[in-house]
Amino acid sequence: MAEGWRGRLLRVDLSTRTWAAEELPPALMANHLGGRGLGIALLRASGRHLLDPLDPGAPLIVAAGPLTGTAAPTASRTSLTALSPLTGTAFDANSGGPLGRRLKGAGYDALWFEGRSEAPVVLAVEPGAVRFLPAEGLWGLGNRATARALAAQEGPGWATATIGPAGETGSLLANVAQGSRFFGRGGLGASFGARGLKALLVRGDAPGAVADPDGFRFVVGECRKLLQAHPVTSKGLPQFGTSVLMKVMNAVGVLPARNFRDSQSALAEALSGEALADRLTVGAKGCPGCPIACGRRIRLDGEEVEGPEFETLWALGVDLGLGDLEAVARLNRLANDLGLDTVSAGSTVAAARELFDLGLLPWDPLAGGAEGVARRLEELARGEGPGAELRHGSARLAAAYGRPEVAMAVKGLELPAYDPRGCQGQGLAYATSNRGGCHLRAYLIAPEILATPKLVDRFATRGKGGLTIVAQNLNAAVDSLVLCRFTSFALGAEHYARLLAAAVGVDADGQGLLTVGERTYTLERLANLERGLTRADDTLPRRFLEEPLARGPSHGQVVALEPMLDEYYRFRGWDAAGRPTERKLRELGLAPRGGEG
Amino acid sequence: MYEQFRDLGRDLFLAGLITSHGGNMSVRLGDRLVITRRGAMLGRLQPGDLIETGLDRDDAMVTLASSELVVHRAIYHATSALAVVHTHPICATALSLVEDAVVPVDSEGSYLLHRVPVVAAAQTVGSREVAEVLPPALRNHRIALLRGHGAFAVGELLEEAYMVSSTLEASARILCQVRAFGENRLKEYRDGADRYDRW
Fold this sequence. Notes:
heterodimer, A: alpha+beta, B: eight-stranded mixed beta sheet
């Protein structure tokens, strides 16, 4: 096996409490790299992608990448692939933190686990050993108390992934915590909980090596120069964190408020990155080896905690009409401890409020302001009280009241903080995201609003298919290297390819890397099609297609989705129904019915 | 889209990156592409100077399209480019006649380009030979030179391809000037500069 990979997969069965290591073929790693690409390749090749997401046989796959643990910028992230119980799609979540580095240190590129433990369990992985620790005493604890208890019990040196009460009770908005970072979206915390898995511990320190140390050092240096030269990665994110986006999005009229009934908010100033910096921030926080450090350390109620990100300030603040920065930061702290995806949780409360406004929901989810919302989040996570009605997200809630259009979600996943009526390409990116309403599969906000790489007309539709596809493919490749997306503000495919080539000692070029990304995206598409999704699922909430924005800089706009979707499919080499053609599959070296793993 | 072609074409001409009727540009739109007309003056583009045709399949419009259509199509097939700009930069083209790669020594060129490969073909205009030898050079570089002819740059947007075209010629001019001073007088200021020629 080339440098950069361990060439080994650890398979664990939580039902039988057995484990085994197996070889990962070099060709598999070369074709899929690691992380998200490896995860979907293993999942689809197993045929288990056809199972119910909460079936004990449906695996979860934790994966590192060929650059994980190296000096490459941001090489301290981890990928988690599974079927999402929220969206019913193949799903990859990605978190900063040491889990992937420890996994490689223990001798594995990936960990596959399946089954269901009869009693709550902690899975502990270390070099040459796997232990199943009792977790009854941890069940019911929040993420912070769980991590503290495990650190006290097992000592230092472990990477930890935990779930809070939301995952235990099976809320489909539950996430998986890696300290104060999260595998945030898609309800994968519920998948942990359904398997009786309270936490995953991984320890391993075996050093990694790269094939060409001098060459690798040079390429890393060049990449760092570019990151340092780009104002987003050297100024905006380090100084203000991701909430630097708040006032920018508000200014151009794409900042949703009141469940996307408005696209600007008077609360943007109070919840801005500048306000956070002035009032609460005590410093920046980065994942190990990250030169950007987008995280915030804030002081709140006398303790230092991780601060809210932009999407959270929006979902639990702007979208709910809550403008007290400290109160929103407390909601963030609470949601993190309960193990809730802040975007989906906030958006579901916003949808509930619209149902209340329509006279359908008999109780006001915003009653009591921020304190009332805190109670709803507790109820949502613990499955008790009125808020329990929200525990499976906005799509199920709105459907239950006969108004599915009130859910601001795509494929069941709540949308983030960008109204696509003010950025047509982002609308296409939402609709075609294979994990649902997500801005991270393709961030067309970059060219449409942030002028990266250059500014394009955000209201134009023609040409957006190509931009979306290139972004989706590049992001899939970066997720398979398991680096941070933020690097792509400054780096292109040719830079990532040179990092890969120097690390693993194989020929790699930028176009080859984009092809790996396309292969990954196509595999995810195939898995979703085989699960029954169709073109009809590549759509947006009716509001974006039929209700023009009433005011603001994006006034009068709706998303012209269908022509963009037609162009997108043709460009992808898919048929009119959104199915990859045999020619395209051959081009990517994929078998029509799996088996390429 | 026309306005973008018009403005960038004017800029290419005024910057001296093309001759009066030289150069061409295109963008890919799915399985279609829009390319400048054969013989169009890029500095004075009119709406009728933009020709839309198939990425794979010929239609009647190919008779009006730039003679470099075959090269543009080949680039789109071999790479994920969404835009191509072809220029005739004087200094960069001169360097392509004596070098196998142009390695900038100025700061901007070093950051953006590192190294620009040169490929060669006996028949340099609109030929299948160019369509074969040029695209591989663009798999890992944003711009490449065709010896004695000019540069082909790629990007997600026309403006990106224009930017690297402009950067290359500026770097080439600086490089030529430094050589006039005597290359052995160059005072190196960059970390890792000895590796740029392998980028």
